[in-house]
Amino acid sequence: MEPARTMKGQAMAPSASYEGFSPALLRHGDPTSIEAQWGLRKLVVEQTETLRDDGTPVERPILHITASAVVKNPWIGRGTSSELVVSPQHIAARLSRLLADRILVLTHGPQAIEAFGKGAIIGEAGELEHGAAIMHTPYFASHLRTFFDGSAVISFSDTRGAPGEPLTIPLCEKQTGIHRDHYQSVRVRIPDAPLPDEIVLIAAISTGPRPFPRVGDRTTDLPLDTSLMNGVFE
Amino acid sequence: MKLRKILTHVEETLTEGGRAVTPAARVAVVAAVLDNPWAGQGFVEDLTPGIDAVADELGALLAKRVATALGTPIEAYGKAAIVGINGEIEHGSALIHTLQFGDHFRAIASATTLLPAVEKRAVAGAGFDIPLKHITDMKQRSHHQTIEVSFADAPHSDEILVALAAASQGRPQQRLRVFGTDFGADAAAAS
């Protein structure tokens, strides 16, 4: 049974069951589809499974997964006062589903996802604001948060560049956002995107913390020892 | 075989040249990052023991993973060995240019041809291009294609990254003449 979803308004909670889950079908062959109208050129999924670090096996393999979509930027040449609130709603919602699906099928549902992030790489003819228009809208971010069963603000990064420009995306723990063990990053690079008139939208997750987290948390930090500061700031 | 990471990259191309590609063209790459079996040993004359210890298991693991990642029948394929900067390119070639490695992929893909390959020495994060060719006919021009990948943090200096690549179809919007017909009109007129 497929998780319940909606394309408008409040995101619906995904189904608890991922039995028989399969990603949303691509409808790009239909010229009236959102994929076709927004020129969705490519979807790229990359997974890193870490088994050992510094010679020591990790307790359980940790997955980092990124899902990226390459779409046309429709706002090129429209100037810096063009409308960016209403026009991206459909593509933002559609991408949230397509990207989340490609991650959820690998993690067998949202339970295994512990940290998340998002990102945008804007082709050189566009503005950073064009990526933000899709990435920071509730139609993208709120849906993504719901599909991944999280509640924290999703950490992000963005950049503008030529095809092959790498982007490093910070991840945060999906419920609190501030769990120190889960501060980590993933790198995305698509060799032939974004072209000057394209935007790459990215969703990213981790199924665990850093391989061997051992720097504690804000609840376990020792009180600042001011004697250690003597001379440090002089 | 000491694995540190297993990396998977799947691309779906939906549009090329402004036209829809239906079904979307899929290419999958799966890479294993493992300790170089000959690291720290100087020049090793006989690489056979290291090959025998690693190639078979590695070939089986990657073939299964890349077939799963692609999720469709395989029509074109290729392979790669990227050697960390302390090793010899020969170390990477040793692991991938043996039937113990490649036969697993040929079996899963129902393939008969040799696997085209890239071998090089590089730092972690370096990009590399894997050539792919048709699984039963290397002359099938529609299936000549290349996938570029790069993986952050791999391979380390004493590691080797070994990868397999698989494609669900030929190039998106492929429309070249079939091999052997380039001079078709002239040849027909001359004969």
Q: Could you estimate the helical fraction of the residues of chain A in percent?
A: 10-25%
What's the CATH topology name of chain B? 60s Ribosomal Protein L30, Chain: A
Shape of chain B: globular
Biggest interface in this structure? Answer: A-B, 25 and 26 residues
What's the number of helices of chain B? 4
Largest sheet of chain B: 7 strands, mixed
Structural class of chain B: alpha+beta
**Order of secondary-structure elements of chain A:** HEEHEHHEEEE
Q: How widely separated are the two ends of chain A?
A: 64 Å
Mean pLDDT of chain B, rounded to whole units?
Answer: 95
The general outline of chain A is globular
- Per DSSP E runs of 2 or more residues, the count of β-strands of chain A stands at 7
The rounded Rg of chain B comes to 18 Å
CATH class of chain A: Alpha Beta
Instruction: Note the run of SSEs of chain B as H and E.
Output: EEHEHHEEEEH
Q: How many separate domains of chain B?
A: 1
**Rg value of chain A:** 19 Å
Question: How many independent structural domains of chain A?
Answer: 1
Total count of strands of chain B: 7
Give the second-level CATH assignment, the architecture of chain B.
2-Layer Sandwich
Which secondary structure elements does this structure contain, and how are they paired or packed?
The complex is a heterodimer of chains A (234) and B (191).
Chain A: H1 34-37, E1 42-53, E2 56-72, H2 89-107, E3 115-122, H3 128-135, H4 138-147, E4 155-160, E5 167-173, E6 184-188, E7 198-206
Helix pairs in contact in A: 2-4
Chain B: E1 3-16, E2 19-35, H1 48-70, E3 76-83, H2 89-96, H3 99-109, E4 117-121, E5 127-134, E6 145-150, E7 159-167, H4 184-190
Parallel strand pairs in B: 3-4
Antiparallel strand pairs in B: 1-2, 2-7, 3-5, 3-7, 5-6
